[in-house]
Amino acid sequence: MHVSVEQAREMLSALLSPPGHETVPLQGALGRTLAAPLRALVSHPSATESALDGIACREADTLGATPGAPARLRVVGESRAGLPFPASVGPGECTRIYTGAPMPAGADAICPVEELLDDGPEHVLLRRPASPGDVRREGGDFRAGEEVMAAGLPLTAPRVALAAALGHQTLPVRRRFRVALLSTGDEVVEPGQLLRPGQVYDSNRYGLAAMLAECGCEVVMLGHAPDSVEALEEAVARSGGADLLVTSGGVSMGRYDFMRDLLIDHGRVAFWKVRMRPGGPAILGGWKGLPVIGLPGNPVSSLVVFHVIVRPALTGQPLQALTLRAATPFRALGDKAAFWRGVIRGGQVHDYGQQGSGILRSLSDADALVIVPEGQPVAVGDDVQVVLL
Ligand SMILES: Nc1nc2c(c(=O)[nH]1)N[C@H]1C(S)=C(S)[C@@H](COP(=O)(O)OP(=O)(O)OC[C@H]3O[C@@H](n4cnc5c(N)ncnc54)[C@H](O)[C@@H]3O)O[C@H]1N2
Ligand code: MOO
After folding, report:
1. Signal peptide location in the record (predicted)?
2. What is the three-class DSSP state of 37?
3. How many A from CA of 134 to the centre of ligand 1?
4. Between the CA of residue 173 and those of 144, 170, 212, 317, what are the distances in Å?
5. How far is the CA of 369 from the centre of ligand 2 (A)?
6. Looking at residue 241, what DSSP letter applies?
7. Where in the chain are the domains?
8. How far is the CA of 357 from the centre of ligand 2 (A)?
9. CATH architecture classification, 49-136
10. What is d(CA 68, CA 207) in angstroms, rounded to the nearest whole number?
11. 49: number of CA atoms within 13 Å, CB side?
């Protein structure tokens, strides 16, 4: 029943039904996942155009121009964005042109206004040759019909902009997962209420809700349930229609760890315990057809398991690890992977120090989780894999 982090992720993905598709307007697309490839409906730029404000001319007429011996050209008109020059530029001629305006026929180079010695109404003097490099070619960004965005891409702000530039008004996206969220434990109290000794504010539910929102999920807040199988059954029964139930607390070895009992005695279990720390006691299973992942109650543990197992399964995006140099040693555990909190300074990663699963501020202060594989301690100067928080 003790699975690796990778197995846990795969088993959770396998329990989730494929989300299906829907269409959303561009404005509602941020954070969603593209469900089908997107082709360009137009080319961008839609015509060969100028990258600068200046004059458009034939490069050959300006070769050898210097401040002492400027090139002199006759101005025959102008080309503006949306209002192209209707005729052709001949030898010794130029048009005024503005950024994004189509290149007139006959012209192949641009000289920016800053390089004009004289900018008269009928003639201009160029202190240097005009440059073909300041011309943006038609389709230089993308061409009509080209497949530009792949299915499965998370829609970041630049990608929403790109989809709009491709000409799409609405986008096919994966349906959001509907995730019910429940925290458990007699000692768990809503923030804002009086806290008696031994009680703790419910940080997990709010942290997990925020993480679910980051994953683009629709969150069904089930609130908090006390430690009894009956209370849990009653709360879980309210998660109707959810794709997944995420709980925190009650999954370890204690007498009052009823989430564990609910799944083991009344539901079914896919795994109980992952070879990782923090977060080892996590449990995955089902209750009356509803997939359930029970995260440990310890505040750091619940959020770390979410980050490395639940998030990749819900978003379909693999865990993005990068390689950094270790500035301090990181200890290994014999039989499980460790995800130690690290601070990144000067391109290197340092041990945060306090690695207890109850030290929630460590997770807030840290920049990354440093992955230390089972039995492979990290020495100063070693390359390590880190996952940004
Ligand atoms: N004998 C053993 N004891 C424990 C083991 C073990 O293997 N043998 N595993 C430890 C590990 S590792 C973890 S992680 C915890 C997980 O325990 P539970 O999931 O059963 O969590 P609880 O006992 O319910 O709570 C643990 C801790 O977290 C606090 N908590 C719970 N819910 C919240 C919440 N919503 N917001 C903030 N804090 C919360 C709770 O008060 C406890 O302090 O078990 C170890 N024990
Ligand atoms: O996983 Mo527990 O998370 O080590 O405290």
Report:
1. none
2. coil
3. 62
4. 22, 9, 17, 15
5. 14
6. T
7. 5-19+176-315, 22-42+149-174, 49-136, 321-388
8. 5
9. Beta Complex (2.170)
10. 68
11. 23
Q: Which atom of ligand 2 is nearest to the CA of 252?
A: 2
Q: Give the largest Cα separation in the chain, rounded.
A: 92
Q: In a mutational test of the pocket of ligand 1, which residue from 203, 252, 300 has the highest number of ligand atoms less than 8 Å from its CB? A: 252
Q: Which atom of ligand 2 is nearest to the CA of 296?
A: 3
- For residue 258 the two structure tokens come to 């009823």
69, two tokens: 């011996």
pLDDT tens per residue across all 389 residues of the chain:
699 999 999 999 999 998 899 999 999 999 999 999 999 999 999 999 999 999 999 999 999 999 999 999 999 999 998 899 999 999 999 999 999 999 999 999 999 999 999 888 999 999 999 999 999 999 999 999 999 999 999 999 999 999 999 999 999 999 999 999 999 999 999 999 999 999 999 999 999 999 999 999 999 999 999 999 999 999 988 998 899 999 999 999 999 899 999 999 999 999 999 999 999 999 999 999 999 999 999 999 999 999 999 999 999 889 999 999 999 999 999 999 999 999 999 999 999 999 999 999 999 999 999 999 999 999 999 999 999 99
Distance 145 CA to ligand 2 centre (A): 52
Q: Is 184 helix (H, G, I), strand (E, B) or coil?
A: strand
Residue partners of 237: CB distance under 8 A and separation at least 6: none
Under CATH, what is the fold of the domain 22-42+149-174? Molybdopterin biosynthesis moea protein, domain 2 (3.90.105)
Neighbours of 191 (CB within 10 A): 10
What is the CB < 6 Å shell around ligand 2?
Answer: 277-280, 296, 298, 301, 357
Q: Which architecture, in CATH terms, is 5-19+176-315?
A: 3-Layer(aba) Sandwich (3.40)
203 CA closest ligand 1 atom index: 36
User: What six digits make up the tokens of 216?
Assistant: 């683009």
342 lines ligand 1 (CB under 6 A): no
Give yes or no for residue 302 CB within 6 A of ligand 1: no
Pair 369, 382: CB distance under 8 Å = no
Give pTM, 2 decimals: 0.86
Cα(228) to ligand 1 centroid in Å equals 16
Fold that domain 321-388 belongs to in CATH: Beta-clip (2.40.340)
